[in-house]
């Protein structure tokens, strides 16, 4: 039996055909690694840097300069990138965090989201130009793949700036809104606030990221994992 199994494995290694393409693509992708760009947006003091450092077990903001109240009011929206290389079980990930200091901190927040939408558009245009060029071997994907938007826990739902920001971005990037500083609220208060914000998101036609539905031909293990992720998400501060 061992001899037959060994011959079978040897034949599989020698086999050449389109059936081996998935394995070839997988090996090439793992060797090259992946790019992921995460944007974090929300006014100062909402715990953005703390959450990012906790998620990826690293300190991306060790050189950050803290501004006083007067400096925050006069600060314009900036785009700051932090890049770190992460490896897990042999899979490499180039993680880029795009921070947006100054967003929502001014007295007049009219169109404060404009520098952010301009940045997202520029990354799409750059990627399109690179893909259209002749040398596409070492293209860097700097497109923003996901945006975590921090909603203040104080108040009765979405503010006008929250609505306008998400409406400006929801066709360009996957938005995941979450309630910041949720530990200062009781579970009942969190539930009421989440329900109110969800109603307003539907009312204003804002598209936020949702887990895709499983195909009917997926295996049971994957279906169970998808179901568990959706259940866990429903019990967190994400919306």
UniProtKB/TrEMBL annotation:
Keywords: GTP-binding, Nucleotide-binding. The record marks 154 as: Important for dimerization. One of its GO terms (molecular function) is GTP binding. The keyword GTP-binding applies. InterPro entries: G_SEPTIN_dom (IPR030379), P-loop_NTPase (IPR027417), Septin (IPR016491). Residues 32-239 form the Septin-type G domain. This is Septin 5a. It comes from Seriola dumerili.
